[in-house]
Design brief:
about 900 residues; alpha+beta; Immunoglobulin-like; Zincin-like fold; eight-stranded mixed sheet; five-stranded mixed sheet; 31 strands; binds (3S)-3,7-diaminoheptanoic acid; binds zinc ion; Peptidase_M1; alanyl aminopeptidase activity
């Protein structure tokens, strides 16, 4: 239990800062135990109120105003603030000298030391662990940073902006001074220092300026940066072409570090990355790793305009930079790779993470209205649903008008700390659209449900579509106003072709896909000149983040999965068909009844695999079965994890039996010859081949283990090797042990590959997995101090291994709760994320619910708990 209940921060209490900081001068002398920070702030009063600076875990050595040292009676300090009682009326300079201990910083926020590299993470509120400051995003300033360190031990000294001076100092020390001419909030400050190597390239911007690009890595990793560098250049070019945004400094730097709380950070001119998203060679990185590297490099780079040049007024506006930047990176990937496959995987992600969040105890609006710990709000709702909101505007106005709206947003707010209102006003004025009702998406939480039904009138040749919307209550929001929901619609004729659509009141038929606007609780649309009964294809491309219930019959789903011209809806129809079948199998297991039989999915697989022309990546998506977690979500209550696992395995085996010849032939045909290339085309073939392998592994009469073992032995790239190892890790027997051992022996020195080895074992469905995971927490490849290791072993177990985390006796829950508490002492942010594994406790039967609640209460009641874990545990229980 916390002795003091933390107080929530509320959006409605926002007040502008009482002081502006025009310039920041930092002098930082690095030392593991006592880094000294001398800060000089040029300050100006802007409004009423005392000068109260944020500061945590700092030792205050000196305070001066306009050069005069202040006695202890002129200020007060506590664990969170430095308050100066009186300051001059006009401009003044505030100087502080403080010290902090990077080596003791295991929370990895502020300045920390890891693998002998000094590194900072300031978003959201880490700068206050480096020096006393007005640590809020609407205080923007020009930074000059001078870093001093031992020249031999710490030869590379980096910060934001351009380097302006460097030199040697007494006692074997040296310094580098950096100047960032762009005003920025403190959360974008960065410092990295250590014995780093780098690779370099150049980029010429659209106006002809040459920018130096550097990627810094630990020595020995220089040859693993080529893909990242290429991705950076593609992202820079794309932002110029798609959004007219050019890079603005002379140098752009990326640093890869191994201990990092999240994926990466967009600090101005000096992005810091989790090395998982930089380092790649074919034999160590999978296709998924390459794709993630490209997307995250682009995401962080795109923040330079959406986040840095225009930042957020306060943390409630986080979606302003995150949702928009995710939308931008999704579009980039859509252009670089397969657009339909990207859309499918984004929707998969949204449904897997955001829908459960929106339907559970931690539901919050895309723009939350209160928080206890802001780091808990870097969520799927803010990021992924936030991106969907931008996408809906894009869908409604089309690309050209959207671009006009964005141009106006950049023109109006460059250099400012903006709000969601500013964004919507610019979009509304620039793209000429009324977004008044649409704005509810930002303040109402929950996933709206759309009900659709259609009626064909053969005599009148009309098709009438009715749609209605409801949104269930969410915490603090019992009632919802109707949303503005754009629904793209098509009507498919018996020949599988789209009909031209003509709505009532229109003179002639037009496009084959139309965006209908559902703005009331109900709406009706009548299509004319419909010559035969159509099959409706609704919510094409997933034009809104809603749950659609269209009451489609099984034969309509089969029809759409074969014929829909909209790839997303083809995939959707296949998923719905398989889900329906699986749910009836789960039900049959529970009731002892008989399940519905359906061979449609297998037939579709057979047809797709034998078709003359196929897009392998798309086929890989459409033939994969919905995950166990998705099925649990669909069931929603009294979930039986064993029945779900059993049903899914049964269907997998029966599909494999039905189509084994086609699977095997595709498995052979999809083999990629020649050297590995990470490009989407080859990756798609590997993806399909490996889905075939996962089916073949359970096909009767095939020795799945032998096939996987052969692939494991022969693989010349990590994608094929991991796919085979995943199959083997789920089949008891000698091949399993041999493969896991061989993999370990080969890769034990590569920490990123070892993360894969840990995750594969943590997600195995075999009995005894929990004991194995416990054993692995003692393995030299694991440490609680590194977030990637925690995520690989413990988070994978808790959130990806539904079967074993929800062990009927509660052993999985107890283990994860122990780890949350252990981790909370080291790294509250990562511990809070892990606590999220308990959020779906209401989905389960009474026994499991009781066990999960017991662990949540044990967590919430622990003495000295962090604000981060406290907020998640108490809100989950509420
Ligand atoms: N802006 C950072 C995330 C910061 C998380 C702080 N807890 C990375 C990103 O979204 O690009
Ligand atoms: Zn971001």
């Amino acid at each position: 239990m916390r002795t003091e209940e933390p107080r929530p921060i509320r959006l409605k209490d926002y007040t502008p800062p009482a002081f502006a900081i025009d310039e920041v001068n930092l002098d930082i002398e690095l030392d593991p135990k006592a880094t000294k920070v001398h800060s000089r702030l040029s300050m100006r009063r802007m409004g009423d109120g005392p000068l109260r600076l944020d500061g945590e875990k700092l030792k205050l050595l000196e305070v001066r105003i306009d050069g005069e040292k202040l006695g202890a009676n002129r200020y007060s300090v506590d664990g969170e603030h430095l308050t100066i009682f009186e300051v001059p009326e006009g401009d003044f300079t505030l100087e502080t000298v403080t010290s902090c201990a990077p080596v003791e910083n295991t929370a990895l926020t502020g300045l920390y030391l890891s693998s002998d590299i000094y590194c900072t993470q300031c978003e959201a509120e880490g700068f206050r662990r480096i020096t006393y400051y007005l640590d809020r995003p609407d205080v923007m300033s020009v930074f000059r940073t001078r870093i001093v360190a031992d020249e031999k031990k710490v030869p590379v000294l980096l910060s934001n902006g351009n380097p302006v001076a460097s030199g040697k100092l007494k006692g074997g020390k040296h310094f580098v001074e950096w100047h960032d001419p762009f005003r920025k909030p403190a959360y974008l400050f960065a410092l990295v220092a250590g014995d780093l190597a780098h690779v370099e390239d150049k980029f010429t911007t659209m106006s002809g300026r040459e920018v130096t690009l550097r990627i810094f890595v630990e020595k020995g990793n220089e040859d693993r940066c080529d893909y990242a560098m290429g991705a950076l250049k593609r992202a820079m070019k794309w932002d110029e072409e798609a959004f007219g945004r050019e890079y603005d400094l002379d140098i752009f730097m990326i640093v890869a570090v191994s201990a990092f709380n999240m994926g990466a950070m967009e600090n101005k001119g000096l992005n810091v990355f989790n090395d998982k998203y930089i380092l790649a060679l074919p034999d160590t990185a999978t296709d998924a790793d390459y794709a993630a590297i490209e997307a995250i490099i682009a995401h962080e780079y795109f923040h330079n305009w959406t986040g840095n040049r225009i930042t957020c007024r306060d943390w409630f506006q986080l979606c302003l930079k995150e949702g928009l930047t995710v939308f931008r990176d999704q579009e980039f990937t859509g252009d670089m790779r397969s657009r339909p496959v990207k859309r499918i995987s984004d929707v998969r992600l949204l449904r897997a993470h955001q829908f459960p969040e929106d339907g559970g105890p931690l539901a919050h609006p895309v723009r939350p209205d209160s928080y206890i710990e802001i780091n808990n709000f870097y969520t799927a709702t803010v990021y992924e649903k936030g991106a969907e909101l931008c996408r809906m505007i894009h869908t409604m106005v089309g690309p050209k008008r959207f671009r006009k709206g964005m141009d106006l947003y950049f023109e109006r707010h460059d250099g400012e700390a903006a709000t969601v209102e500013n964004f919507l006003d610019a979009l509304s004025d620039g793209a000429k659209i009324d977004l008044t009702q649409f704005k509810r998406w930002y303040s109402q939480s929950g996933t709206p449900e759309v009900l659709a039904s259609g009626r064909y009138d053969a005599a009148r040749k009309t098709y009438t579509l009715k749609m209605s919307q409801v949104c269930a209550p969410t915490p603090g929001q019992p009632m919802k106003e109707p949303y503005h929901i754009p629904v793209a619609v098509g009507l498919v004729g018996a020949n599988g072709r789209d009909m031209k659509l003509q709505l009532d009141g229109e003179e002639k038929p037009g496009a084959t896909t139309r965006v209908l606007h559902l703005t009331e609780r109900e709406g009706t649309w009548r299509f004319r000149n419909v010559t035969e009964k159509p099959v409706p294809s609704l919510l094409r491309g997933f034009t809104a983040p809603v749950k659609l219930n269209a009451h489609l019959k099984e034969r309509d789903l089969v029809f759409l999965m074969r014929h829909d011209s909209d790839s997303f809806n083809r995939w959707e129809a296949a998923q719905r068909y398989a889900t329906g079948l699986l749910l009836s199998m789960v039900e049959a297991r529970a009731s002892g009844g008989t399940a519905r039989k359906g061979t449609g999915f297998g037939e579709m697989i057979r047809d797709l695999l034998t078709a003359k022309k196929i897009d392998p990546d798309f086929v890989a998506q459409i033939i994969a079965l919905p995950s166990e977690q998705t099925l649990a979500q669909m069931i929603g209550r009294d979930v039986d994890v064993d029945a779900i696992h059993g049903a899914r395995e049964e269907l997998r085996a029966s599909i494999a039996a039905q189509t084994k010849d086609e699977l095997l032939s595709a498995y052979e045909r999809m083999k990629v010859d020649g050297p590995y290339r990470p490009e989407a085309e080859d990756a798609g073939r590997r993806a399909l081949r490996n889905v075939c392998l996962s089916y073949l592994a359970v096909a009767p009469g095939k020795d799945g283990a032998a096939l996987a073992a052969a692939q494991f032995r022969e693989a010349d790239n990590m994608t094929d090797s991991i796919a085979a190892l995943t199959v083997l890790a789920n089949i008891e027997g000698p091949e399993r042990i041999a493969a896991l051992d061989a993999f370990y022996k080969r890769w034990q020195k590569n920490h990123l590959v070892m993360d894969k080895w840990l995750a594969i074992q943590a997600t195995s469905a075999l009995p005894g997995t929990l004991d194995e995971v416990k054993r692995l927490t003692q393995h030299p490849a694991f440490t609680m101090k590194n977030p990637n290791k925690v995520r690989a072993l413990i988070t994978s177990f808790a959130s990806m291994n539904q079967l074993h985390f929800h062990d009927a006796k509660g052993a999985g829950y107890a283990f994860v709760a122990d780890k949350v508490l252990e981790l909370d002492k080291l790294n509250p942010q990562v511990a809070a994320r892990l606590t999220g594994a308990f959020r779906s406790w209401r989905q389960f039967g009474p026994k499991r619910r009781k066990l999960m609640v017991k662990e949540l209460k044990r967590i919430a009641g622990t003495e000295g708990l962090s604000r981060d874990v406290y907020e998640i545990a108490t809100k989950t229980l509420a």
